[in-house]
């Protein structure tokens, strides 16, 4: 067994004009594939630890030292991207009543949640991700991580994530990360977020 690059759950141009087909090809076929290849290369050195990346990254100290950083980077890169593709859709979706109520209770309103998420995505310096997670107390929290670090390593369950590496937006949005963040909100797959929220609670 090895980790396999999952197919996109929609066509490469399905998220146009918000996320362009050229970006989706590069991002999925090249960048994500590279994380998969490098994660497999690391895992092959230690067949005894298995291939359950979520379990391994939930306890990074358990990963053999010689492949620890490679798995944080590439195992995390695989998990983050596999989730990211599922978090977008060309279809019109909306937060469930339960999630909407939790967002209102935590942030005050959906608009305030969007502002907090946008701030996290905008101010993450360099490469990383912005997240909406369910934290250890079972509460919603907006956070961000550097590089391909996953909130799973902090004991948090990601339910929404946005890749803010330049490779995710530079083809279309150039240096204007805020426009990409705004566009992302037009293609969020709330059905998937609702499902992850229900499972995380
Ligand atoms: Fe990416």
Given helix and strand content, the structural type is: mainly alpha
**How much helix, percentage-wise, in residues?**
40-55%
The radius of gyration over CA amounts to: 17 Å
| CATH fold assignment of the largest domain | minor pseudopilin epsh fold
Q: Would you count the extended β strands for me?
A: 3
Q: How many helices does DSSP assign?
A: 8
Name the CATH superfamily assignment of the largest domain. Answer: Iron/manganese superoxide dismutase, C-terminal domain
Largest sheet: 3 strands, antiparallel
**Strands of the largest sheet, in order across it?**
2-1-3
CATH architecture call of the largest domain: 3-Layer(bab) Sandwich
Counted up, domains total 2
End-to-end Cα distance, whole Å, is: 31 Å
Strand content: 5-15%
GO molecular function, one term: superoxide dismutase activity
Catalytic activity: 2 superoxide + 2 H(+) = H2O2 + O2
Keywords: Metal-binding, Oxidoreductase
Function: Destroys radicals which are normally produced within the cells and which are toxic to biological systems.
Could you explain how this protein is built, in words?
With about 200 residues, this protein is mainly alpha-helical. It folds into 2 domains: about 20-85, Helix Hairpins (Orthogonal Bundle); about 95-200, minor pseudopilin epsh fold (3-Layer(bab) Sandwich), CATH 3.55.40. The chain contains 8 helices and 3 strands, in the order H-H-H-H-H-E-E-E-H-H-H. The chain has helices at about 20-45, 55-60, 65-85, 95-105, 110-125, 170-175, 175-185, 190-200, and strands spanning about 130-135, 140-145, 155-165. Strands 2-1-3 form a 3-stranded antiparallel β-sheet, with helices on both faces. A hairpin with a 5-residue loop joins strand 1 (about 130-135) and strand 2. Helix 4 crosses helix 5. The longest helix has 24 residues, at about 20-45. It is globular and about 45 Å long. About 30% of the residues are buried. Fe (ii) ion binds near residues 31, 81 and 168.
């Amino acid at each position: 067994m090895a980790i396999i690059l999952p197919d996109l759950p929609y066509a490469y141009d399905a998220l146009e004009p918000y996320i362009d087909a050229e970006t989706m090809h590069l991002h999925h076929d090249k960048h994500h594939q590279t994380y998969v290849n490098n994660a497999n290369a690391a895992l092959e050195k230690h067949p005894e630890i298995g291939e359950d990346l979520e379990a391994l990254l939930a306890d990074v100290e358990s990963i053999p030292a010689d492949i620890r950083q490679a798995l944080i980077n590439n195992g995390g890169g695989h998990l983050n991207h596999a989730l990211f593709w599922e978090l977008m859709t060309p279809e019109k979706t909306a937060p469930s009543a339960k999630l909407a109520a939790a967002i209102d209770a935590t942030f005050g309103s959906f608009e305030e949640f969007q502002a907090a998420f946008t701030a996290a995505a905008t101010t993450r310096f360099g490469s990383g991700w912005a997240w909406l997670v369910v934290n250890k107390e079972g509460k919603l929290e907006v956070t961000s991580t550097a590089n391909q670090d996953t909130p799973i390593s902090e004991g948090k369950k990601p339910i929404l994530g946005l890749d803010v590496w330049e490779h995710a937006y530079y083809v279309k949005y150039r240096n204007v990360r805020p426009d990409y963040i705004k566009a992302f909100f037009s293609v969020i797959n709330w059905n998937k977020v609702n499902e992850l929220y229900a499972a995380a609670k």
